[in-house]
Amino acid sequence: MSLLPLSSLLADLVAISTANPPGGEEAIAIFLRRMLAGQGLASALHPLSEGRASLYAEIPGRNPGSLILTGHLDTVPPSPNWSFPPFQVSEQDGRLFGLGTADMKGGVVMLLEGFCQVARRGLPLYTLKLMLTADEEGDFGGAKSIQRAGLAEDALFALVAEATNGRTMVGERGLFWPRLHFQGKEAHGSTPSQGINAIEAASRTLTPLLEWARSLPPVALFGPPTLNPGWIEGGRQPNIVAESCHLDLDFRYGEEREKEDFVGRMEELGHSSLAGIRFHWETCKAVKSFYTPPDDPWVIALLEAEKAVKNDVEKPGVVSYCTDLPLLFPKSVPPCVVFGPGDIHQAHQPDEYLSLASLEESSQVLTRFLLETLCP
């Protein structure tokens, strides 16, 4: 039986705008702090910047080490194409429409339910930590600040509540965003041979780099790496040879060696793209991949809870998107899973929704897992 009113709590969270930018997560963190206080639980705000904060709470355990439950409080801004009010939960045919229902205020509700259920049982075997972060949709600022505070250092296991349709996922692909800079020489457009065209150099780098990336073989559960050229800017006008060009790429991968190979190939092509070109690159964002073997005892325990609730269980997989988890553990990553209600394909979409059945079922699975592992 749920301790918290799941759908009404979700409606309360959706009603508090945390669209990032600007974020404004402090308001929702204060609301949740008061809610936890009503359950007799202490929590603390971890400020990030003006009007922005993460929330941290813990239930002390009897033994060293902790289990971490984490999720983010921010959402993307709503597009103008919504047919439902984005900051209000609208229920229709068992679906709860509202901004952030799937990504991931529904997951936050699931975490709160499990956390409060454990608190009712007294001291758990290990400390249970709740980390609800700001700025996941931006630069992972909340996760980084919590990591710098040392709050995740004793983790034995961590779960992030991103939308997986209630399926246990044991890994996530890495993300690497390089910005490539090409510097050439201006000349009149009628005499291009007198200049060095930075746009041409970028083209000579990008085309073979895309072909190379598409030829890479898949790696285990992660599948093949992907490369997307997401932004390009260069030149001044058609009758001037472009002196500069800048190119942003999005590379997703399963194993770190794939990133290293990609960097090597990118540098080789950039430096040899055009005679006289000056080339350099910088990292705009990087998030490591992670993978936990499905036979890990924590994963097995979660799968057993999933099977007990659903009478069935899907084989663990990996997610293609990024979460806060690698930012919480920049050096040594403990066993980790991604598990939460809702469909990730609803994320960042107009009329985003979460099914009430998914929220209730996922909450039952997580609560069962926590009670059986921490409060036997």
Describe this structure in words.
There is one protein chain. This protein is α/β, with parallel strands linked by helices. The protein folds into two domains: 253 residues, Zn peptidases (Aminopeptidase, 3-Layer(aba) Sandwich), CATH 3.40.630; 114 residues, Alpha-Beta Plaits (2-Layer Sandwich). 32% of the residues lie in helices and 26% in strands. Strands 1-2-6-3-7-15 form a six-stranded mixed β-sheet, with helices on both faces. The protein has a four-stranded antiparallel β-sheet with strand order 10-11-9-12, covered by helices on one side. Helix 5 packs antiparallel against helix 6. The longest helix is centred in the N-terminal third of the chain and has 19 residues.
Provide key terms for this protein:
elongated; Alpha-Beta Plaits; four-stranded antiparallel beta sheet; alpha/beta; 16 strands; 376 residues; 9 helices; Aminopeptidase; six-stranded mixed beta sheet
Please summarize what this structure is:
The chain is an alpha/beta fold. The protein has nine helices and 16 strands. A six-stranded mixed beta sheet has the order 1-2-6-3-7-15, with helices on both faces. It has a four-stranded antiparallel beta sheet with strand order 10-11-9-12, with helices on one face. Strands 4-5-16 form a three-stranded antiparallel beta sheet.
